[in-house]
Amino acid sequence: MNIANSTELICFIILGTIVIVGALGVVFLNNIVYSAFLLGGVFMSVAGLYLLLNASFVAAAQILVYVGAVNVLILFAIMLVNKREELKPIKGLQLRRILSGLVCSGLLILLIRVDLTTTWNLPGPNAIGELSTERIGEHLFTDYLLPFELASVLLLMAMIGAIVLARRDVLVSDIGTGESADQILIEKKKTPILIDKISQ
Amino acid sequence: METTTGLIPLQAYLILASILFCIGVWGLINSRNAVRVLMSIELMLNSVNINLMAFSSYLDGDLIRGQVFTVFVITVAAAEAAVGLAILLSLYRNRVTVDMESFNLLKW
What we know:
By secondary structure, chain A is an all-alpha fold. Chain A has helices spanning 3-28, 32-52, 56-81, 93-117, 132-141, 145-166, 183-190, 192-199.
């Protein structure tokens, strides 16, 4: 085992441990803010795994899009809705958790068995290594041109949809229940000083 | 230029992705905070991305179509996160909570 191989192995073990422990923390920690920061750590170690797989472009895209955009968006959402609330206890919550844990571990065992018993067609063709960015560019502008353009349309739709959904413009009364749903009125009841300051 | 894939087997990446996916599924089912549900979805998408990248590096090292797919998955995930969080904000305005158990407007 030469030094490059052992370095690669050590990097893989460290990154894999960070990914799994971070993901467990995201799911199990009580404080949602810690979860969000751990999620950023998971995204960055996944980018490190991509670097191990000779994919520098996708690793950079992962850092830019996931850590730079998605994680920051999640943090903003947490700050907008962060209210300490006591969740109502529901019946059979523990049983539900145990049962779903059993189902998930069964799924995990199944997936690992599939991973280990399938005969993969190894070794494949030689990896192109550092040329991968150019190859991705060729793909995006030749045989994957239509999905590439559709992705831009999708992003535009998502942007407009997000703006429309998150806008402060609600019906005066809720159609289903008939109760008052005027957002300004409700928020005035909750935080009178803040709204008055904003409207002045 | 020949780049060897080293001594890490393909199965190691696949098992790592499987574990990450199952953690994401558990979190998706059991989270009571709506933001945590979105985070679990991101975890699952990332595990799928690890799978695609591993296959593209080990089995398709010449054409790396898996990396192109990963770029598309990242794009769709960004759009999904934006729309999901916007829906969450508008739910929070109407229900004043982020508890998943209280979002039962479409139930029955």
